[in-house]
């Protein structure tokens, strides 16, 4: 049986900024529309956290039973390492995704925007079929696109919509920025795993683009949020404060751009996620003010 600490590590807490950042940015955009609701924001945050923990356990289970995690570099894989029974990890995944569904249904019912049920169902299905099912889309180079949609567009715009009943250009800008950050985190992860993914037959976007192309993609993605800051800052000058988060990316940019491999890239995931969260927090404050 896996220990409590192993279960916590298996949930991959370093990915939690990917779930928190879109909600925080969405809260800032909602405040700018004079539509902030603390309980709707809290429910949106809990949905996002449950969803990402669910997808992490689902990924652990699906990759583990396929054998693609046996020689993976990085955080503990519960199934691949043999630390936990596959059925136990599957139950954890389904429980987390089920909780996301219940919380999402509650949010939709209380807000009255019933059409959002379709978006919620799509998010849960996307979480499972990332590496689950007979033809997981994560094995066909579509993982980054899914992250952009679910933890960028859906996360930010959904948070705004359940509070304001509409979205704004500010919300869209934040959604694209956070989505680009989230993509960068996954790109760094898949860059690290190129050798083992090729060996196991997992065709991620990184294996298709190759080492050099993947590094260029990462550097492009972490530039997008700051380019959007300049554009949005024309109307909201306070947003320029988000540039103080740029130094958080110096080490990951050096690791990725400098040819780092394997374990050398692990801190890049954490630092990119922290830069994303810091950018989202400061953007929310700027929009709120």
UniProtKB/TrEMBL annotation:
PANTHER family: 1,4-DIHYDROXY-2-NAPHTHOATE OCTAPRENYLTRANSFERASE, UBIA PRENYLTRANSFERASE DOMAIN-CONTAINING PROTEIN 1. Conversion of 1,4-dihydroxy-2-naphthoate (DHNA) to demethylmenaquinone (DMK). The chain crosses the membrane at residues 42-59, 88-108, 113-131, 137-162, 169-188, 226-250. Coiled coil: none annotated. InterPro entries: MenA, UbiA_prenyltransferase, UbiA_sf, UBIAD1. HAMAP family: MenA_1 (MF_01937). Its EC number is 2.5.1.74. The keyword Cytoplasm does not apply. It comes from the Bacteria. Pathway: Quinol/quinone metabolism; menaquinone biosynthesis; menaquinol from 1,4-dihydroxy-2-naphthoate: step 1/2. Pfam families: UbiA. Keywords: Cell membrane, Membrane, Menaquinone biosynthesis, Transferase, Transmembrane, Transmembrane helix. It is found in: Cell membrane; Membrane. One of its GO terms (molecular function) is 1,4-dihydroxy-2-naphthoate polyprenyltransferase activity. It is a multi-pass membrane protein. This is 1,4-dihydroxy-2-naphthoate octaprenyltransferase. Belongs to the MenA family. Type 1 subfamily. It catalyses: an all-trans-polyprenyl diphosphate + 1,4-dihydroxy-2-naphthoate + H(+) = a 2-demethylmenaquinol + CO2 + diphosphate. The gene is menA.
